[in-house]
Amino acid sequence: MRSTPGTEAFPAHTPAAAQIFTTVLSHGPLTRSDMAGRAGLSAAAVTKAVRPLMEAGYLVEDAGDEARPSLGRPANPVRVDGGRALFIGVKITGNEIIAVLTDLCCRIRVARHVPLDDREPKAVLASVAALAQELLAEADGFGVRVQGLGVAVSGDVDRAAGEVRFSPFLEWRDLPLAELMEMTTGLPVTVDNDVRALTVAEQWFGAGVGLSDFAVVTVGAGIGCGLVVHGKVVSGAYGVAGEIGHVVIDPTGPPCHCGNRGCAEAIAADPAIVAAVREATRLPVADAAQAVDLARRGDPGAREVYARAGEAIGRAIATVANLMGPQRVIISGEGLAAYDLFAEQIRDAFTASAFGTAAQCDLLTRPLPFDEWARGAAATAIQSFISGPTRGQG
Amino acid sequence: MRSTPGTEAFPAHTPAAAQIFTTVLSHGPLTRSDMAGRAGLSAAAVTKAVRPLMEAGYLVEDAGDEARPSLGRPANPVRVDGGRALFIGVKITGNEIIAVLTDLCCRIRVARHVPLDDREPKAVLASVAALAQELLAEADGFGVRVQGLGVAVSGDVDRAAGEVRFSPFLEWRDLPLAELMEMTTGLPVTVDNDVRALTVAEQWFGAGVGLSDFAVVTVGAGIGCGLVVHGKVVSGAYGVAGEIGHVVIDPTGPPCHCGNRGCAEAIAADPAIVAAVREATRLPVADAAQAVDLARRGDPGAREVYARAGEAIGRAIATVANLMGPQRVIISGEGLAAYDLFAEQIRDAFTASAFGTAAQCDLLTRPLPFDEWARGAAATAIQSFISGPTRGQG
DNA sequence: TCCGTTCTTTTCCGCCGTCAATAAAAGAAG
DNA sequence: CTTCTTTTATTGACGGCGGAAAAGAACGGA
Questions:
Q1: A196-233 pLDDT, tens per residue?
Q2: Is the CB of A43 under 7 A from strand C?
Q3: Residue A323 to residue B327, Cβ atoms within 8 A
Q4: Interface contacts (A, B; CB < 8 Å)
Q5: Pair (B60, B89) in one structural domain
Q6: Is there a single domain that holds both residue B27 and residue B161?
Q7: Does A213 touch chain B if contact means CB atoms closer than 8 Å?
Q8: Of the residues A341, A360, B39, B204, which has the fewest C-beta atoms closer than 10 A?
Q9: A180 and A278, same structural domain?
Q10: Which of A360, A344, A339, A311 is nearest to A213 (CA)?
């Protein structure tokens, strides 16, 4: 394996140690007996796994204790020291690069974004590298080293190989992005699909913590879906998974860029909504914000468009629930800004279309700040750091 | 754990041993070095795992060798001795009980079926018990003990708990079927959903061998789907998964018993096809066989119905492929008798609706003899036998 | 001060799988 | 016919991980 100067290896020498660390990472301060219970290990094993992690400074005793049950030896909760390591997450969209500096607990310390006009790999790589350098300089201010870089790109990405197989928005094909970025930054790089990266963030640091089966649905420029089944993110045998955007909702609906008609994305994604509102109102609506505005001010045509969109999203989510029976679906994305306009329709359509006990699946909405995508990328870098780099061993 | 007299424990004392055994079970005769490669273990570990299994007679050296590479010590392939143990699989439908006696390799030795008119649990249990006794008597003829009983029921089944939570066709609710059957038969009993059982059979003994992600789609009285993701069968957090039959294909389509319109099942399941053919032709078509007959003889109305059904199935399969990106979809079920009538439409609709590389997923059809469902139940029993009973430890 | 309780660590032990060396079973070479 | 080469399988030593049980530690209460 290539030696990356300046980065250190995470001292989890056994799978159990990594498991315990991630348990503490996700579930906040935990006593050792809690860890043993959650991880299904003996208390002795916990002690042995925790020691090297504390010695290395990744775990610390949590002084801020309260509400102890007043009997017996007081418990000694342990938490992750987020400040022990930093990570950079980068999301590359078709017209913008968003980068964040996060700590080990995936809390954002610094966020930056720059516009992107040239989509050639070379130019993009240079922009990303420059942004990474800026954040590395910021990291110096914290006196802590950056241990990894995560990059999120939409499209078909092979995380294990570190390659972008095909990215429609960027028009990239078979680009060994991880290797290239490692050359320019000197950091271990993890590349993943953007929706999957967001799903990883939810799984470790968000509303998916502790769940073995859940889905993340993103509504915005497109409609995407990340799936976790049996505790692991689904990648699909051929790189495609969670394409909820192309579930056909209405075969007589508007045409979709995929070649079919009435896909969820062709009804409920931002461009589709804007187009439909424009057609319904005959007004020169330019973007989603104007469409939302119009609907909020009570325009019946616009409201109807949002109602339809909500129904489409609800039906698409129900399809996911019927097929894989998740415990929870987390709805997120920029499109959530319009949530008040279609929340009811989403729930109604979901309830109507969910079959049997699949309807018990709970729907959760989660606001998506603009830097959340980049945070997802950082989460993948954290994941790689903890589980050890698995790529590039050939 | 309850001691089940007459049955013995499988001598796989370590997870690695069980893994190696199932590898040999699924991949036919293998040399020890092959096993090591496939299981990701060292040759030494294989030797140690194989020995007790051979001593117990579950593995035997495969004398029938051929085509050796003529250099070095000849390899010594090992295979599972199917005749070492027998299993009973039972499928309970709304009007029939099908039971098979299989060997350890899930090859059917004897098959029986009896009609079922009383759906009360008591009566059904009595019928199943009688059938099991018959097969146990047959097993005596082979001089080999029956080591387990698998029962497959449609609906919401909790395999771990051994309970039928809800079976619409049988009108059962919260029935501790495994426990009851263990009392009457004295065998370890595994209860599972019928489609999942079929999926297990494909995963271990069929077209799903060696695949970590695939789907089984059944077409017949209903439309079902079993999913394997990350090498494990998906059960759904609330017991529901793979409900492909209620993917909405056409919101203006015929009403479905689930309350929606245009579900795949309301278009392409046997009853829906019969009803549609009857309406299209104004002929008193009684069952699927007559409908197929009519279509094969060229009736345009009937052919159109099948074409629509094929399109619905293809779209439903594409939905699964888009969401979880399986390597393969295995199409099966009684409805496959009409395969020549809609094969083309299934493939065309799948190709049109599959997104990107998800279309690389290969579609495979597989005839489904009447006793295949029961064989699936036997496969679950074999699985439980090998991995050790996990139920009833509370 | 002693005791009971609860959390944590220590010590010992068994088990499993790998490593490296060895044995085994052929055909090929001399 | 012996010896070498090649590939497969087995053996035995070793190390590491995790568990059981006992000891230790930290507290409140009697």
A1: 999 999 999 999 999 999 999 999 999 999 999 999 99
A2: yes
A3: no
A4: 155
A5: no
A6: no
A7: yes
A8: A360
A9: no
A10: A360
